[in-house]
Structures are given as structure tokens and as C-alpha cells.
Amino acid sequence: PGGPGGPGSAAPKPAAAAPRPAPKPAPAKKGRSKLVLLGVAVVCLLGVAYGAGLLMNHSDVPKGTTVLGVDIGGGTKEDGVEKLDAALAKRAATPLKLTVDGKETQLAPDKAGLSLDSQATVRAAAGSDYNPVSVIGSLFGGERTVEPVFPVDEEKLGVALQDLAGGSGTVKDGTIKFEPGKAVAVPGKAGKAIDVNKSMGSVRDAYRAQVETGTARAVELPVVTREPTVTQAELDRAMKEFAEPAMSGLITIRAGGKEIPFGPAKSLPQILSMKAVDGKLVDVYDKEAIDRLCAGVFDGVMITKGDGKKHQLSADDVAFAMKGALMGKTPAERTVTIDLDGNG
Questions:
Q1: How confident is residue 74, by pLDDT bands cut at 50, 70 and 90?
Q2: Mean of the per-residue pLDDT values for the chain?
Q3: Over the stretch 26-65, which tens digit does the pLDDT of each residue have?
Q4: Could you state, in order of their start, the residue ranges of all structural domains in the chain?
Q5: For residue 330, is pLDDT > 90?
Q6: Nearest in space to 232 (alpha carbons), one of 272, 278, 185, 184
Q7: In the CATH hierarchy, which fold is given to the domain comprising 232-337?
Q8: Which of 97, 238, 299, 315 is the most exposed place for a label (fewest CB within 10 A)?
Q9: Which residue, among 274, 270, 267, has the nearest Cα to 250 in the 3D structure?
């Protein structure tokens, strides 16, 4: 008893477990650290480049700015305008080549309200460009492209095309010709004429393309079939109410004690014509022919005008007097004395 394992002996205690060593920290991944450092370096480099670009590019027009391939950057706005005009002004002033129903004609840009606005273009390009791509790119010769400004005077262009339509189309308005001793009615003729509304867009596009490329290519303008604006009824009216009475005999114009006759055989056919205005025929007087035929007869004759001052009697004054005389039926009615005092 009392021996090991005997009655009354205490049971042996289990041995305490040895403590586990703490886990070692995982070694840092070297590749990731290098990427972070590289990223920081790139950001710093870009920041330095951006700052350098802003510092160097302090001109009115940023470096590398181009318009239609013309470099206008790196200087003042005035410099940019001079560069743009030197390169493109000739192109912008070159007449457009147009074709109307197979006939070629030209249209001057300035008369048609077409232009390249160099100043507006440079103003749009001026000022600091804070776009990082543009700023940094300027350090390495990068370009910043600016669109040219092409203002269009729509009203002026429309008028120019209307005038062009009258001279280039095949439609002919009725008119009256004044020949020695008689007036001759000339009926109108239907034909083709420019479609002004559709042509405006074609002309705008052609002008822009000409300035951009430097090449003047003929542009076919759309046409429509049109009837004469002067009807046969209007032609008959103009003959009866004006042309026939005008050529019915001699007229005499007097002023300042001097006078000069104009007859249907020689003088009046040189002076008179008619033109269509909104479908009506109106009388027209050739002022150069009047001056030539007067041959100085009224030189020194003064007339008081609306400004209260005296002026040399002019072809306009003679033409105004003729208008009344031509409608007269008797020799007395066909003689007009010009009022030199401005009372009538």
C-alpha cells in the first residue's frame, strides 16, 4: 500500500502543454512597393511638367496653337492675326467659281458677305489653356487645333445671289426697247434661274472649303424653272401708259433762259429704257447720256435744293423734268421749265 498505483496514492497531474511560438510576420511583397513608388514618381514628374508648361506658356496665344495648319501660337493676339492673315488672306479673298445651268460665273466673297474673321478666330484661341494634355504636350511640340471663324451676312449673300440669278439665268423678263422713232415691246421668256435659298448653303460650304484647301473648285448651283415676272398684261400697260406717249414727239426742257430739245429720232432712244421691279416696268433715264446730249447748255445755271443752297443744275434735275414732259400731248405740255427757286 502506498506504492505507486496503490490505494490512496494521488493520480499524477498531466504535464502542461508547451506554448506555441508567435507566427512570424509575412515578408512585404517587393513588386507592389516598386509599383507604388513608380506611381508616385510619375505623378510628381507630371506635376513638374505641368508646372513647367504653365510657366513657359504664358503668351496670349498658347504655344502649339494651329488654325487650318497655320501655327499662330507663342505670341500676342496681334501676332496671331498677322500670321493667320499672311497665310490665309489671299485664299479668303479669292472669288468663288460658280456654275449656273452650265454657265460659269464668279462671286466675290466680300460682295457676298463671306469672310474669314482672323481677329475672332485668334480671340477664341487666346487665353491660358489649363488642360493638362495641352499644357504638357506643348513642351514636346504638341498641337492645339482651333476652328476658324467664318461669319456669314445672310442678307448680303441673298442679295448677291439674287443679282447673280438675274445675270446668269436663262429666264428673260419682258421689257420695252426704245429705237429711233418708236418703242418696241419685247415679251419675256421662261427659263432656268438660281434657286437662291438652296444655293446659300452650297456657297457657304464652297467658301469654307476654298479657304481650308486653297483650291478654288467650280460649284454647281441648284436651278429651278421660272416664268418671267413681267406679264404680257404689264407689258401692254407700260407701252400704252408710258412708252408710246414718250416717243410721240419732241420735248423741250428750259432753265435759266436756256433750253434744249430731245426728240424720238435720236436723243430719246439714247436716254430711255425700262426695267422690271417687282413685276412692274418702270422708266429709267441714262444720266450720262443726258449730260452728253446737253453738251454744257445748262452750265452755270443754279438751282436751289432742299438744303436751301444753290447747286449746279444736274442731269437728275433734267431727268425729273423730262418725266413730266414725256407724258404731254401737245407741244406746250411737252415743254417744261425747271423751277430754279425750289418751289416746285
A1: confident
A2: 83
A3: 555 555 566 655 555 555 554 444 444 444 444 578 888 8
A4: 38-93+118-145, 232-337
A5: yes
A6: 185
A7: Ubiquitin-like (UB roll) (3.10.20)
A8: 299
A9: 267
Dihedral-angle region of residue 315 (phi above 0 means left; psi in -120 to 50 means alpha; beta otherwise):
alpha
Judging by DSSP bridges, how do beta strands 251-255 and 258-262 pair with one another?
antiparallel
- pLDDT exceeds cutoff 60 at 12: no
The percent of residues above 90 in pLDDT, for the chain, comes to: 56
Output the nine-digit C-alpha cell for 182: 418708236
Nearest by Cα to 146 from 127, 168, 162: 127
Task: Answer for the pair 174, 231: CB distance below 8 angstroms, yes or no.
Answer: yes
0.70 cut: is pTM over it? no
* Dist. CA 97–CA 118, nearest whole Å: 23
Angstrom CA distances, 236 to 58, 69, 174, 254, 324, stand at 74, 61, 10, 32, 21
Length of the chain measured in residues: 344
Task: Taking the CA atoms of 159, 165, 168 and 174 in sequence, report the sign of the dihedral they define.
Answer: negative
| Residue 280 exposed, middle or buried by CB count within 10 Å (0-12, 13-18, 19+) | middle
Exposure string for 19-52, b = 16+ CB within 10 A, e = fewer: eeeeeeeeeeeeeeeeeeeeeeeeeeeeeebeee
> Which of 314, 212, 329 is closest to 255 using CA atoms?
314
Contact 183, 244 (CB under 8 A): yes
E strands present in 216-308: 219-220, 223-226, 251-255, 258-262, 272-277, 280-285, 302-304
CA distance linking residue 124 with residue 116, whole number of Å:
13
User: Kind and range of the H or E element at 39?
Assistant: helix 30-56
Q: Identify the burial level of 132 via C-beta atoms within 10 angstroms of its C-beta, where 0-12 means exposed, 13-18 middle and 19 or more buried.
A: middle
Residue 136: the pLDDT is 46
80: left (phi over 0), alpha (psi -120 to 50) or beta: alpha
